[in-house]
Amino acid sequence: MKKIAVAKGDGIGPEIMDAVLEIMHHAGAQLEVQMVNMGKQWYEKGFSSGMTPESKEMVESYGILFKGPMETPKGGGMKSINVTARKVWSTYANKRIFKSLPGVKTIFSEAGIPIDITIVRENIEDTYGGIEHMLTHDVALCRRFITRPGSMQVHRYTFEMARKKNAKKVTCGHKANIMKITDGLFLECFYEVAKEYPEIKADDVIVDDLAMKLVVKPNEFDIIVLPNLQGDIISDLCAGLVGGLGFAPSANIGDQISIFEAVHGTAPDITGQNKANPTSLLLSGAMLLRHIGQNAAAENIENALIKTLQDGIHTPDLNKNEGLVVGTKEFAAAIIQRLSDSKPYANNETHSIPSHAKPTENLMMETKFNGTAEIVGVDLFIESNKIPVQVGQILEDAIDHQLWKLVTISNRGTQVYPTGSIYTECINQYRVRIECATKHGTCSQNEILELVTKLSPLFKLCSIEMLMSYNGKKAYSLAQGQ
Ligand code: NAI
């Protein structure tokens, strides 16, 4: 028996979770289910994280959370419990499986093209850090984190999974042609990890090209790993290929804690009407069972679901004029009827679940770097409604040219000074790049702060970014047109 924490969720959550737990039980899953308090009503009862401390404790001690969809109350600045749970418990890999299901008609099933794609989406970083600011009344800025340890973690998980599946190929989706530093780092880590798995072909594709190829030739892909935001979009595209979000399971995998959930929301429009389709949550339950090594029960569920759909039995959302339309409960009963005799869970099945010991402190994930790291300048984000040449002149007059060089001024990432185009439309916020002009070309943090203090009366300062050089190589992007 494996203890798991279960949160039924809001809206249709309780209906589909009850149906799914019953199917799992009849399929021979050996689970000790402990209900935890998470979701809308717990926000309303004053728990700002949407869960009680006892529930948090239970999830952390069992290491597995199986959850229904949850609603985040609007307004009041509440953060989504779904995103918070994934991030605070370091479930760094979001794994979603997209497989053609018999009985679910799609353009590809009609054309006889089978689809079996697994997407691994980095789950913690990228723009999902939620670090956003208004720099001026007109300008919003979002910071995008891609880290070396975070990228290595998700790539290693992906290749390990590929090896277990005997997969032939892993593809990295990215936008490194434009975001050379962030996506470039994600891609660099991909090929670094790929070296450890020589039996698996590793290739990469630019994400827009990937979107097109997935629609035209989806059967050419096997496993795809992507940064968070691109992974989010591409996953939903893949869900569309196999019939919609209702058929795509999702697992958020971490080294200590993993979360299994349906990808759709709480469907308030059909709540309490016995209309909800439990398939996505059921397939997520099957992923959970495989994760803890109860493979026979998982297979039993998947086969019974396929038989049910092949027999034309489905919930109303399938939008088909043929077959038998049934409610959630009847759909679950039909699946249970089609389960093979529930074999007791075989203890000799391989357990993939890592040993679960509570850490005593936060894990610091730092990669070794033995080279040189130096400050070579600063990017100042300033507010000004003056035209570029005026901003440039004010700064040229103010800086000590023995120490500093005004290298470029850009507006929305496009260089407007010292050269630029009169046709570049500007907003009231500039990025000013000043590099050290001394012989060695480096400076201290304090020298940067002194420069900032000197320039501060001239403009409203929005943000400061240090310019770094690692092993003598500039570690920042050029402005467009620089
Ligand atoms: P939604 O997924 O709840 O609904 C979109 C449409 O799909 C609706 O017409 C709904 O009836 C239908 N639908 C969804 N799941 C279905 C199912 N299992 N069977 C049949 N039909 C289904 O998305 P929406 O309306 O944008 O969000 C509603 C609420 O759900 C919001 O409060 C949102 O924050 C929350 N949500 C929670 C998620 C989670 O817990 N992981 C994910 C997405 C949304």
Tell me what you see in this structure.
Helix 1 packs across helix 10 and helix 6 (148-164) runs parallel beside helix 7. This protein has 3 domains: 1-90 and 269-367, Isopropylmalate Dehydrogenase, CATH 3.40.718.10; 93-253, Isopropylmalate Dehydrogenase; 373-474, Alpha-Beta Plaits (2-Layer Sandwich), CATH 3.30.70. The chain has a 10-stranded mixed β-sheet, with helices on both faces. A 6-stranded antiparallel β-sheet has the order 17-16-18-15-19-20. It is elongated, with a radius of gyration of 26 Å. By secondary structure, it is an alpha/beta fold. 32% of the residues lie in helices and 23% in strands. It binds 1,4-dihydronicotinamide adenine dinucleotide. 1,4-dihydronicotinamide adenine dinucleotide binds next to loops.
Secondary-structure blueprint of this entry?
Elements: E1 2-7, H1 13-26, E2 31-35, H2 40-44, H3 53-62, E3 64-67, H4 81-88, E4 93-99, H5 107-110, E5 116-122, E6 132-136, E7 139-142, H6 148-164, E8 169-174, H7 182-194, E9 201-206, H8 207-216, E10 223-226, H9 228-241, E11 249-253, E12 258-262, H10 279-291, H11 295-310, E13 313-314, E14 324-325, H12 328-337, E15 373-383, H13 388-398, E16 404-411, E17 414-417, E18 429-436, H14 445-455, E19 460-470, E20 473-474
Parallel strand pairs: 1-2, 1-3, 3-12, 5-10, 8-9, 8-10, 13-14
Antiparallel strand pairs: 4-5, 4-11, 6-7, 11-12, 15-18, 15-19, 16-17, 16-18, 19-20
Helix pairs in contact: 1-10, 1-12, 6-7, 8-9, 10-11, 11-12
The structure holds 1,4-dihydronicotinamide adenine dinucleotide.
